[in-house]
Write a structure and sequence with these properties.
Layout: H1 5-15, E1 19-23, H2 27-40, E2 44-48, H3 50-56, H4 58-70, E3 76-83, H5 86-94, E4 99-102, H6 109-123, E5 129-134, E6 138-141, E7 144-146, H7 156-166, E8 170-173, E9 178-179, H8 190-199, E10 204-206, H9 214-220, E11 225-230, H10 232-248, H11 255-277
Parallel strand pairs: 1-2, 1-11, 2-3, 3-4, 4-5, 5-8, 6-9, 8-10, 10-11
Antiparallel strand pairs: 6-7
Helix pairs in contact: 2-4, 2-11, 3-4, 5-6, 7-8, 10-11
């Protein structure tokens, strides 16, 4: 069932667990995510990035996601991931999205607050959650690129002020994660995260969690992390299954047989993440 992101975040904060947010680009990825959620009895956030929207089309993603949500008994939120354009975010509202993520991390502190407030003013009457970002998370997220030298960690005092003045419902923080494939093991700044959680009352979000060790995820969640973004790992297991099938059966032309094992791989990965985040069995 399709619900507001606010409903999912409130329950996660109270229950002291995190909910997985998984990016979709096509039908098989979407099916893998919602099937995993139903099997694990877990709330879930489906999200579309700039690249996903460009590839599949906003109308297609919205229609598929809303249909998928109607077919399962668990809470499902539909989120735009790293929305940078106010008009595009408004289009997502019109197409039934129940959660919005505005990425103003490249703006000045005051500009980020101002635009986030505009998004909040649009979303609140429709009971749509708003996620903002403070600090720059390194790596590549489709059309959003932040080089290592540009990545900056979130300041705890600024986080508290930002959340209060912007009115955002959840806040993505930069504590050492990055988008894409890690070159080494990421080192998270837990002291900074703890300080942010003490000063900032809204639920927090961990981006770039693909490849972060399980024990680091476990350690981060008690400090207010209520949403964990996963994209790269789902893509990786998708690609591995397709490559293996094509290598073993080079004459296969049936897309169902090529993509079926990939969907199974993704569903298993999503189920593992839901157990890790503590949201399995919470629906």
């Amino acid at each position: 069932m399709l619900v507001s992101g606010n409903e999912i975040f409130a329950a996660a904060k109270e229950g002291k667990y995190a909910v997985g947010a998984f990016n979709v680009n096509n039908m098989e990825i979407l099916q893998a995510i919602v099937e995993a959620a139903e099997e694990e009895k877990s709330p879930v956030i489906i999200q579309a990035s700039q690249g996903g929207i460009k590839y599949a089309g906003l109308e297609y993603i919205s229609a598929m996601a809303r249909l998928a949500a109607s077919q399962v008994s668990v809470p499902v939120a539909l989120n735009i991931d790293h929305g940078t354009d106010f008009d595009q975010i408004a289009r997502c509202v019109r197409h039934g999205f129940t959660a919005l993520m505005f990425d103003g991390s490249k703006l000045s502190f005051e500009e980020n607050i101002a635009v986030t407030r505009r998004v909040v003013e649009m979303a609140r009457p429709n009971d749509i959650s708003v996620e903002a970002e403070l600090g720059k998370i390194g790596g590549v997220e489709d059309d959003v690129v932040v080089h290592d030298r540009e990545a900056t960690f979130t300041d705890p005092d600024e986080a508290a002020e930002f959340a209060e003045r912007s009115g955002c419902d959840v806040l993505a923080v930069a504590i050492g994660t990055a988008h894409g494939v890690y070159k080494g093991e990421p080192k998270l700044d837990f002291a900074r995260l703890e300080e942010i959680s003490k000063k900032c009352s809204v639920p927090l979000v961990l981006h770039g969690a693909s490849g972060v060790p399980d024990d680091a995820i476990h350690r981060a969640i008690p400090f207010g992390i209520c949403k964990v973004n996963i994209d790269t790992e789902v893509r990786q297991v998708f690609a591995e299954a397709v490559k293996r099938l094509v290598n073993e059966h080079p004459d296969e032309i049936d897309p169902r047989k090529i993509l079926g094992p990939a969907k199974d791989n993704m569903r298993n990965t999503v189920r593992e993440k839901m157990r890790l985040f503590g949201c399995a069995g919470r629906a």
